[in-house]
Design brief:
The complex is a heterodimer of chains A (about 190) and B (about 800).
Chain A: E1 2-7, E2 10-15, H1 22-28, E3 47-50, E4 53-56, E5 69-71, H2 84-91, H3 101-114, H4 120-126, H5 138-154
Chain B: H1 14-25, H2 55-59, E1 77-83, E2 89-95, H3 97-100, E3 105-109, E4 142-143, E5 149-155, H4 158-166, E6 169-174, H5 181-184, E7 211-219, H6 222-231, E8 235-244, E9 247-248, E10 256-261, E11 267-271, H7 276-287, E12 294-297, H8 314-324, E13 328-331, H9 334-339, E14 343-344, E15 347-356, E16 361-373, H10 379-388, E17 399-408, H11 422-440, H12 444-451, E18 458-459, E19 473-474, H13 480-491, E20 504-514, E21 525-531, E22 537-541, H14 550-562, E23 569-573, H15 590-617, E24 624-627, E25 630-633, E26 639-641, H16 642-651, E27 660-665, E28 674-684, E29 690-700, H17 707-726, E30 757-761, H18 784-796, H19 807-820
Parallel strand pairs in B: 1-13, 11-12, 16-17, 22-23, 29-30
Antiparallel strand pairs in B: 1-5, 2-4, 2-6, 3-5, 7-17, 8-15, 9-14, 10-11, 10-13, 15-16, 18-19, 20-28, 21-22, 21-27, 24-25, 25-26, 28-29
Helix pairs in contact in B: 10-11, 11-12, 11-18, 14-15, 17-18
Classes of the chains: A alpha+beta (about 190), B alpha+beta (about 800).
Protein name (chain A): (2Fe-2S)-binding protein
Organism (chain A): Haloarcula salina
GO molecular function (chain A): 2 iron, 2 sulfur cluster binding; metal ion binding; oxidoreductase activity
C-alpha cells in the first residue's frame, strides 16, 4: 500500500507492505542513515524522530507513520555544517565503527531538547537502550555532556535551530530558531 | 619509562641476567636502520589526536556499510538461509517446490545442487594453509548443530525470501547429540565427524573421541618440580579450576555480503570482512575460480571483533548469485548472529603452580578443555592462546607445561573473538596467581611483580607449543610495573574506604595483562604511497579498518615520515584489486604489521622526495629532511614545498617521475603490549549483590599512535570484558536449542551498567614497531574477569571461578564460606 509521510522535510509517497517496519521502508527509499542492528526494536540503531518523538523505526509499522513527519540523523547537519551534537561526537572520538551512532545522536539530541543541562547519570539513562559494542559508552557519554555545554554556551537550540518533528517553529521552545531571542535561543524553558 | 628504569621492585635473578645478556647479543630486524625513537616534542603527526577520517560521514549517516550498497543494484536479489532445527542428523531430502513456485523467488539451493560445491573448506580467515581443519561445506547434508545452514533462497525482496525459506521442507534422519565437552570425549559418545569428513592438519586429532586437537608443550621438568615440592618443605602447590561460557561478538552490523559478476566476468564481493585477501583465496578454492577473477572489497564495517575474520556467509551468497544469475545480498538477522554464526569458545581450565614461601614460582601447569562446538574453525589456535598469551607474563618460571583438548559438541561453533583465547587464559592464570598469593599470605600485587616480566627477559613460554625456537622472544619494551603503579594510584589501592554498613564490603582486585602484536611469523602487510602534484599523497594499504580508526592511524604514520599533515594522505584500503596484500585485521596486527608496512612505503617515497629536494635546493640529500609540508635543509634552513616538488616531478622540463614508495612488512616478532586491570567492587554480604565502583586500565602499547583512538580501544575492550565477567553467556535447552535469540535475552551491558572507567597510557618504546608502537585492540578484553574475581576475594574472602559472576553464585559462595566457619 502507499503511505504519505514527510521525511526530512520532503513530503513523499512510499510503498509499504502491511507488515513492513518503518526502518525497512525508509532504507528502501534511500535513507541509509537509518541502521538496522537487531530484529526489531531492541538495539536503538534505527532511532528517528516521528512527529518529534524518538522511535526505533524498526520497531514500528511503516503504516503507523502515515501522515507523520519523520526526521533522521541526516536532517541534523551536514559534514561541513554539523549539528553541535554531531560535532561533539566527532571531537570526542565517540565514533568507532559508527553503526549505532545515527540512533545515538538522534536520542542525544532529543535528550538535550528536553534537558539542556543533564547530569552524566541522566545522559546514561537516556542512552540506555542504544546498544554500542565499540566504545564502552565512555566517549559517547562524554560527547553528549560536551555537546550540552557547547549548546548552552552558544545559546543554540538542541536541534541547531531547525524545527524537529513538524512542530510549528514558533509553537514550542525546541522549535524556535537560534536567533529568536530569549535567554538561550530556545533551548530552555524561557 | 621502561621497566629497567623502574628500580623499586626489581629483583634480578640469575635467569633475568642471562636473558639480558642474550638480548643484547642479537640485533633486531629493522631496529638498526630506523632511528625512529622520537621524543614527544619531535613528533609531528603520530601522537596527535587526529580526527577519525570517517567520523563526519558517520555522524551524518552518510557512511556506507555493505547493505547500504543495495541502491547500486537495481536487479538485486535478497537471500535467506534455511537452517537446521535439529542438533545432529542427516538431511534425507529437501522439498523446494513450494518455495520455488512462489512469485518473486529466483533460486532455491540445497546441498544437492550443482552450483553448491561439496568441496571442504575452513571458514577461518587465516593464513595459507589454514591451521584450522577443512571441515565445512557451503550447505550441510550432515547437520551438527541447531542453526547449521541447509538451504538458501534468493528472491526479489527480503519478505519474499523469508516466506519462501519457511516453505522449504527438510526431512532429517536424526542422530543422538552431545552437548558437554567432557561427555563428548567418551568413546561411546555420538561422533560428529568421520575421519574422511575432514582435512585436519592440527595436532592430536582423534575424531572417534570428537577430539579436534590435542596439544601440549613443556619447558623444564614440571612433574619433577611438583614432586620435589610435594616431598620437600617451603614450596606450596596450589591447584584451581575455572570455567567460561560462550560469548557473542554482538557485532553492531550483522554479517552482510553482496556478490555479483561484473561485465568483465569477474566475481565481486562487497562484504563486511576483516580478511579481504584470505576471503578471495578461499572463494577461489571453494568455487574453483582463479584468484585473479575474484575481487573482494570492504566498505565501512560495523565492527568485527573476530566474527568477520570468518568467511561465514560469502560462500552461500555467491552460490545464490550463481543460481539466481543476478546480484545477491545476504544479511544476517540478529537472531542468526546469536544462534548460528560465531562465538567465543567456552572453556574449562585447570591451573597448578608450585611456589616457594618467598613467592618464587617454581612450576606452572595449565590445561584447557575447549568446546569447539560443531566445527573446528580457530579451534586449536584459540585454545593455544589460552596459554601462550598469559603465561609469558611470568617468563622466568623454569618449569612450565601447557596442554589442551579441543572437542566437538553439537552446539554453535566457537571462532576468533577479540582476545582469541587470552580472555579465558587470563581468567585462569591471573585469578590463580591472586589466589596463590592470598593462600601464602603474600601481597597479591607484590607476588606477581616479583615474578613478572621485565625488559630484557627471554620469553620461551610464548613458543612452548612450537618446535622451533625462533619464536622465543626477547622482551624489548615492558611498562608493566608502571602500569601497576599508576593503576594502584588511580584506583586508590592503598587508601580504600569501607562502607559504613557491616554487611557491605569493598575490595580491589588486579590482573596483569599481556597480548601479542600480530601472529609471529605468520603476517604480511604491504602498502604503496603515490604522490599527487599538489603535495598530497594517496596511500594504498591492504590493512583493514574495522571501525577502529586504523585508516586514520595509517595516515598519521605516513604523514610523520612524509612531513605533511595527515589529512594530506588519502587512504585507499583493503580492496583486493586496488591495494597491496594484507593478511587482514586480526591478532592485533594492524598497527604493528600493516602500520609498519605503511611506514616503510612512506620512507621509500621519502627517499625520492629528498632526491628531488636535493636537486631543487642544490644541496646533498644527506642534509635534507621532510617536515611541515616541505623538504628542508638542516644546514641552511632552505626549503622547497612538497607541492613544488610534486609539480616539478610531474611536469618538469628536464626529468619527470611519479614519486612512489613501496613497503612490505613481515616478521617473526610479536612483541606483547602489557596492561594492568583494576576493579573496585562493593559486595553486599546479605544478598550476594555486588556493585562495581570503578574500572581502571593502564596500558603499555609502546608509543600510542593517536592516543584518543587508543583510549577508545581500551574502553571498548573493557566493555566486552565487563560483559564476560558479569552478564554474558549463552544457554541451550536439553536438545541444543539456543535460548538466547536476541539482545533482550543477552546480557550485554548498557550505558547504566557501566561503572566509571579510567584509562592510563604508559608509554614505552618498542624498537621493532612503527615509531615504537605495539598493539592495543585485544589487550583490554582480558582483564575484568580475573580482576573482579580477585576484588570479590579481597572484599569478602570467597573465590568465584565460573563466568559470568551472578549474585546467586556469590550468595552461594558466601553461604559456603559461612557454613565452613
Amino acid at each position: 500500500m502507499d503511505i504519505e509521510l514527510t521525511i526530512n522535510g520532503e513530503t513523499t509517497t512510499v510503498e509499504a507492505g502491511s507488515e513492513q517496519d518503518l526502518a525497512t521502508v525508509l532504507r528502501q527509499h534511500g535513507h541509509i542513515d537509518v541502521k538496522c542492528g537487531c530484529d526489531g526494536g531492541t538495539c536503538g540503531a534505527s532511532k528517528v524522530f516521528v512527529d518529534g518523538d524518538v522511535r526505533m523505526a524498526c520497531g514500528m509499522a511503516a503504516t503507523e507513520a502515515e501522515g507523520s513527519d519523520v526526521q533522521t540523523v541526516a536532517s541534523l547537519g551536514t559534514q561541513d555544517d554539523l549539528h553541535p551534537v554531531q560535532q561533539a561526537f566527532v571531537d570526542n572520538f565517540a565514533v568507532q565503527c559508527g553503526f549505532c551512532i545515527p540512533g545515538m545522536i538522534v536520542q542525544a539530541t532529543a535528550l538535550l531538547d528536553e534537558n539542556p543541562d543533564p547530569t552524566e547519570r541522566e545522559v546514561r539513562e537516556a542512552l540506555d537502550d542504544n546498544v554500542c559494542r565499540c566504545t564502552g559508552y565512555q566517549k559517547p557519554v562524554e560527547a553528549v555532556l560536551d555537546a550540552a555545554g557547547r549548546m548552552r554556551e552558544e545559546g543554540v537550540a538542541a536541534d541547531g535551530g531547525r524545527p524537529i518533528g513538524g512542530e510549528p517553529a514558533d509553537d514550542t521552545a525546541m522549535g524556535k530558531p537560534a536567533d529568536a531571542g530569549g535567554c538561550c535561543g530556545g533551548g530552555c524553558d524561557e | 619509562m621502561s621497566d629497567s628504569d623502574n628500580a623499586s621492585d626489581l629483583d634480578d635473578g640469575p635467569d633475568g641476567v642471562r636473558a639480558e645478556e642474550e638480548a643484547t647479543g642479537g640485533t633486531v630486524e629493522g631496529a638498526a636502520r630506523e632511528p625512529d625513537r622520537k621524543a614527544p616534542d619531535e613528533r609531528e603527526a603520530i601522537t596527535t589526536d587526529e580526527e577519525k577520517d570517517d567520523a563526519r560521514q558517520i555522524v551524518t549517516g552518510e557512511a556506507r556499510y555493505t547493505a547500504d550498497y543495495r541502491d547500486r543494484f537495481p536487479d538485486l536479489a535478497h537471500g535467506k538461509v534455511v537452517r537446521s532445527d535439529i542438533a545432529h542428523g542427516h538431511v534425507e531430502s529437501v522439498d523446494t517446490s513450494a518455495a520455488e513456485a512462489m512469485d518473486g523467488v529466483y533460486a532455491v539451493i540445497t546441498p544437492f545442487d550443482d552450483v553448491v560445491p561439496d568441496t571442504l573448506y575452513s571458514s577461518s580467515g587465516q593464513s595459507y594453509p589454514e591451521p584450522s581443519p577443512w571441515d565445512l561445506t557451503v550447505l550441510r547434508e550432515h547437520v551438527r548443530f541447531v542453526g547449521d545452514p541447509v538451504a538458501a533462497v534468493a528472491a526479489e525482496d527480503p519478505d519474499t525470501a523469508d516466506r519462501a525459506a519457511r516453505k522449504v521442507e527438510v526431512e532429517y534422519r536424526e542422530r543422538d547429540a552431545v552437548f558437554d565437552p567432557e561427555a563428548a570425549l567418551d568413546e561411546d559418545a555420538p561422533q560428529l565427524f568421520e575421519t574422511d569428513d575432514v582435512e585436519n592438519k592440527q595436532s592430536g586429532a582423534d575424531y572417534a573421541r570428537n577430539l579436534e586437537s590435542h596439544f601440549e608443550g613443556e619447558l623444564g621438568d614440571v612433574d619433577a618440580a611438583f614432586d620435589a615440592a610435594e616431598a620437600g618443605e617451603g614450596v606450596h602447590v596450589v591447584e584451581t579450576e575455572w570455567e567460561t561460557p560462550y560469548q557473542s561478538h554482538c557485532v553492531p552490523e550483522p554479517h552482510a555480503t553482496i556478490a555479483y559478476t561484473d561485465e568483465d566476468d569477474r566475481h565481486v564481493f562487497i562484504t563486511a570482512t576483516q580478511v579481504p585477501f584470505h576471503t578471495r583465496r578461499q572463494i577461489s578454492h571453494l568455487f574453483d575460480v582463479p584468484i585473479r577473477d575474484v575481487r573482494v572489497t570492504k566498505p565501512r564495517i560495523g565492527a568485527g571483533f573476530g566474527s568477520k575474520q570468518e568467511m561465514a556467509i560469502e560462500p552461500i551468497t555467491f552460490a545464490l548469485h550463481l543460481a539466481a544469475g543476478r546480484p545477491v545480498k545476504l544479511e544476517m538477522t540478529r537472531q542468526e548472529e546469536f544462534t548460528a554464526l560465531r562465538f567465543r569458545h567456552p572453556m574449562r581450565m585447570r591451573m597448578k603452580t608450585a611456589v616457594t614461601e618467598e613467592g618464587d614460582i617454581e612450576a606452572m601447569d595449565l590445561y584447557t578443555l575447549s568446546n569447539s562446538g560443531a566445527y573446528g574453525t580457530h579451534g586449536m589456535t584459540v585454545a593455544n592462546n589460552v596459554g601462550t598469551k598469559p603465561l609469558p607474563i611470568y617468563p622466568r618460571v623454569p618449569n612450565v607445561r601447557f596442554s589442551g583438548d579441543v572437542v566437538h559438541t553439537n552446539l554453535p561453533m566457537g571462532a576468533a573473538m577479540r582476545g582469541y583465547g587470552a580472555p579465558q587464559g587470563h581468567f585462569a592464570v591471573e585469578s590463580h596467581m591472586d589466589e596463590v598469593a592470598r593462600r601464602l599470605g603474600l601481597d597479591p600485587i607484590e607476588f606477581r611483580l616479583r615474578n613478572a616480566v621485565r625488559e630484557g627477559d627471554l620469553d620461551r613460554s610464548v613458543a612452548i607449543l612450537k618446535d622451533d625456537d625462533r619464536f622465543e622472544r626477547t622482551i624489548r619494551s615492558c611498562g608493566i610495573r608502571e602500569c601497576v603503579e599508576r593503576g594502584k594510584e588511580a584506583i586508590g589501592y592503598d587508601d580504600l574506604d569501607q562502607p559504613d554498613e557491616d554487611h557491605r564490603h569493598r575490595g580491589v582486585g588486579m590482573a596483569l595483562i599481556a597480548q601479542g602484536s600480530g601472529v609471529a611469523g605468520k603476517e604480511l602487510g604491504a602498502a604503496q604511497v603515490k604522490m599527487n602534484e599538489d603535495g598530497s599523497f594517496h596511500l594504498q594499504v591492504g590493512g583493514v579498518d574495522t571501525g577502529t580508526g586504523a585508516d586514520t592511524m595509517f595516515s598519521q604514520i605516513a604523514a610523520e615520515v612524509l612531513g605533511c599533515p595527515p589529512e594530506d594522505v588519502v587512504v585507499v584500503a583493503a580492496d583486493t584489486d586496488l591495494t597491496p596484500f594484507d593478511y587482514g585485521a586480526y591478532a592485533s596486527s594492524t598497527t604493528y604489521i600493516s602500520g609498519r608496512a605503511v611506514k616503510n612505503a612512506a620512507e621509500d617515497a621519502k627517499e625520492r622526495l629528498l632526491e628531488w629536494g636535493a636537486t631543487l635546493l642544490d644541496e646533498p640529500p644527506e642534509v635534507l629532511d621532510t617536515g611541515d609540508g616541505a623538504v628542508y635543509s638542516e644546514e641552511t634552513g632552505n626549503r622547497v614545498s612538497l607541492e613544488e616538488i610534486g609539480y616539478e616531478a610531474t611536469y618538469g622540463d628536464d626529468e619527470r617521475e611519479h614519486i612512489l614508495g613501496d613497503g612490505n612488512h613481515s616478521t617473526d616478532e610479536s612483541p606483547p603490549p602489557y596492561g594492568a586491570q583494576f576493579v573496585d567492587v562493593t559486595v553486599n554480604e546479605e544478598t550476594g549483590e555486588y556493585d562495581l565502583n570503578k574500572l581502571v586500565f593502564a596500558a603499555d602499547c609502546g608509543v600510542a599512535i593517536n592516543p584518543a583512538l587508543v583510549e577508545g580501544q581500551i574502553e571498548g575492550g573493557e566493555h566486552m570484558s565487563l560483559e564476560y565477567a558479569t552478564s554474558g553467556g549463552l544457554s541451550f535447552d536439553g536438545e541444543g536449542n539456543p535460548e538466547v535469540q536476541g539482545f533482550r535475552q543477552y546480557g550485554m551491558p548498557r550505558t547504566t551498567d557501566h561503572p566509571p572507567m579510567e584509562t592510563i597510557l604508559v608509554e614505552t618504546h618498542e624498537p621493532t614497531g612503527p615509531f615504537g608502537a605495539k598493539s592495543i585492540a585485544e589487550l583490554p578484553t582480558n582483564g575484568v574477569p580475573p580482576a573482579l574475581s580477585n576484588a570479590i576475594r579481597d572484599a569478602v574472602g570467597v573465590r568465584l571461578t565460573e563466568l559470568p559472576f551472578t549474585d546467586e553464585d556469590l550468595r552461594a559462595a558466601l553461604d559456603a564460606r559461612d557454613g565452613d566457619d
